Amino acid sequence: MTSRGFTPFACRRAALLLTLAPIALLPGAAIAQAAAPAVATAAVVTAQPDGVAVRLGAETIRVVALTDAILRVRIGQNGAMPEDASWAVDAAVRKQRARVTPTADGFTTAALRVAFAADGRMTVTDPAGKVISADAAPFRRDGKGFGFAKAMPQGEHYFGLGDKTGGLDRRGKSFVDWNTDAFGFTSAEDPIYKSIPFFIGVGGDGGSYGIFLDNSWRTWFDFGHRDDGVLAFGAPDGPADYYLIAGPTTAEVTRRYTDLTGKAPLVPQWALGYQQSRYSYMTADELKQVAARLRQERVPTDVLWLDIDFQDRNRPFTVNTQAFPDMKGMIRDLGKDGFKVVTITDLHVAHAPDQGYAPYDSGTKQDRFVHRADGSVYVAPVWPGPSVFPDFTQTATRDWWGGLFAKQVSDGVAGAWNDMNEPAIFETPTKTMPADVRHRIASDDFASRIATHAEIHNVYGMENTRATYDGLRKLAPNERAFVMTRASYAGGQRYAVTWTGDNLATWDHLKLSVQQIINLGLSGFSYGAADVTGFAGGPSPELSTRWFEIGAFYPVFRDHSAKGTPRVEPWVDGPEHLAIRRRFIEERYRLMPYLYALADQNSRLGDPILRPVFYDYPSALRMSCDQSWAFTVGRSLLVAPPPRPDQPVAYDVCLPAGGWYDYWTGRRAGTPETQEAGQIQSASQATGEATARGDRVTVTPRLDYLPVFVRAGTILPRQPLVQSTSETPNGPLQLDVYPGDDCRGGLYADDGHSMDFRKGVYLRQAVRCAVTPDGLTLSFAAREGRFKPWWSAITVVVHGWQGEGVVTGARGVTAAADAVSQTLRFTLPDQRRPADLVIARR
Predict the structure, then answer these.
(1) Average pLDDT, integer, range 283-303
(2) 3-class SS at 136?
C-alpha cells in the first residue's frame, strides 16, 4: 500500500550529490588536495588506554577498539566530540573496549593494526600486514558537511546498503540515503524506502570488512562512480562517526555488524509460511472466500493480510464495521482453519478534532504529535485526509502509540504492518515532511533537545516500528511480536521484518527482488520479502509462476498486489500454473524444520537466511558463471534461477568446490544421472535440463523447473506436508543425508509462538556424519532445552548410496536400499540422547 497514483520522485544521483554532498563531487586526486589539513603541522598521535587520539589542525580523530575486530572512529572540532548517542548502537555496546597496545603511530589489537600517516590518513591492516582499509585522503570537512575517502582496490566488491537498487554489487555506483516513497521504482532508481548506511567490502587482500556510518542525515556513498579507485562517503551534517568491522570473512563481518546494531528476534514460526495479501480484501466475506479457496485448492497458507480498506475511512486503529461487522469473530473462525490475520496500521493519525476518534484525542491531550517550526502541530494529507504524526523520538510517545494496539491484540490480530512510514506525505513535491519540522528527542542516552526532520527523517520509520514492536510485546508479553515495515534505518531489524516496497510486475523486478533481499540480509535484515508477482501492473502467467517458485525460497513469502491490477492468487491462471505454484509452496512447508533452524541461528548469530553464494563459499566471487541472482538458503541449499528469466536460453551454473547434489532427484550433480535433473514429478519427464561440465552444470530453463542444489556434507531436516504451521505433521521427521566433507545439520523446535524458548523450553540438537571406507557414521549430539517435539521417530535417507546397507547402534532398525534413487532409508526412534550410528554397506 502506498501513495498510489502519485508520480514517483526520481532524481539523478549526480543532482542529489550536487545538492546534498558537495564533497562527493571531488574526484580522488582533488579530494586528496582539497582535504589537506588547513594547518602546516603534521598529525599529532597520542596514545589512549582504549585506542588513540590524533590532532590534525582543528580536528581531533578519536579511534577506539570496541573489540579486537571492531573500531569506532569519531571526529570532533576544537577539542569537542559529537554527542555519544545513537539510534542504532546501544550504549552498552558503545562502551565495550578491547585491550590495545600503543605504537608510535597508532595501536594494535589481537586482530588489527591501526597506523596514521603524517597527514592524518589512517590505514588498518591485519597482523600479517595485509591492508583491510586505507584512507585515500585525509578527512575533509566543508561547513557542516564532511567526507571520507578510502582506497578502493581493483579486485574489491561492495555489498549492503539495504535494499538499494542497481544490482547486487555496489561498485561503480553512488547512492543517497533518504527514505522515499518510491511507488513503481525502477531497477536503477535511488533513493528508495530504507536508509542503512552500512556496506561490506569483499575480495581485498585483508579479507572482508564493513563500514557503518552512524549518521541519520542524508548520507551519501560513492563506490568509484566519480573516480575509479576512490571509495567516498559522508553527510551534509551530523556526527562524523563510523565503525570499521574486520572479518576476514563476510560472515564474520555480518555477525559483528549485528553485534553492534542488534539481532533480529526469533519470529513466530507461522511467519515462515506462505502469506496471502491484496490491496485490498474489501470485506470479511471476500477474505473468507479467499481463505476457503486456499484450503479447497490445498495451497498451504499461514497468513492473510488486510490493507487499509478494512479501516473506517482509512483511519488507523479503526474497523469498517459495515464491511467487517465482527472482526474478532472472523479472526477466531479463520484461526480454527489455521490462518493468522495481520492488519495494516499506518502512522498517520487522522486530524479529527471533536469527532470521538480516540487516537487523535488522546494524542492531542498528551501533545504526542510533531510540530512545525512555528510551534503549531504539523498537519498534512495522507490516506485519512488531513493527518498528524506521532513524535516517535520520545519514549513517552512510543509508549502511547504501543498502547493503541490493545484492541487489535484483544481481537486476535497476529501482527502489525507499518507502511507509509518514510514518512510519505501527499500533495508535496518532496513526498515527505518539510526539513524544518520539529521533533523532540527524549529517548535513550540522547540529550533532550529539538531536532529538525532533516536529522530525524531516516530514523522516523524505525522508531515507528520500535513503538509498535514494544507495544505488542507489552500487551502480550509471552507472545512473539510480528511487525512488518517499509522504511527503516540501521538496527531496524530489532523491531521488524521488511519488504522491498511497491515493486513492478516485470521480469526485471523479479531478478531485482533477489538482489535486494540478499543485500538486506547482509545489512542485518534477514527477514526480507518482495511482493510476489509484483505490486503494480499485471504479470503474465509465466512471470507469476516463476515468481512463486523463487518466492518460495524468500525469508518471508507474501503474495501481494495493488488495486486495479489483475488478481494474482495462486489459482487465477488455471490448473497447470496452480499445480506448479502449489508444488513449490508445498516444498517450502516440507523444508520448515530447516528454515526454522536458520531462524534460530539468525537470532543468535546474525547470519542471514537468504545469502549470496560467496557468503559461505568465498571462491564463488571469482567464478565465471553469471551469478547475478544465484543465492543460497542457509549454507546448504543453492538456488540458481536463469540469468535471463524471460528467455528459454541455456545457462551454466557454477557450483563451489566440495560437491553438490540435485535437490529434486537427490543424486550427485555433475554425474550422468543428473541429466534428468528436470524431473520434478516423475522419471518419465526427464528432458536433460542439467548436464555436467567440470564444476559447472548446464541448465535449459523450463517453467516448471528451478535448479536447486544441496551441498555435499549436508544433513537436511524435512517434515511431512501440512496445510499450515498450526497443523501437527503426521509422521516422522526426515533427515536427508548428503555425504561429504564437514557433514552436519541442526534441529531446532519450540512451540512456534511464545517466549518460553527464553526459559529453556526449546529443542536444539546438532547432527553430524562422517564418510568411512564401509559407509558412514551418523552422530546425534546431546540435546539442548526442555521442549518435546512433534516427532517420535526419525526417518534417515542417505543419498548417493550404492548397494544394500545395515545400521548398527540402534535396535531393530532395518535399512532399505533403492538402486534407482541411489538411497538407503531407515527409521529409528527419536534420538533424545547422544547416539552414534554406523551405516555400512553389505
Answers:
(1) 98
(2) strand
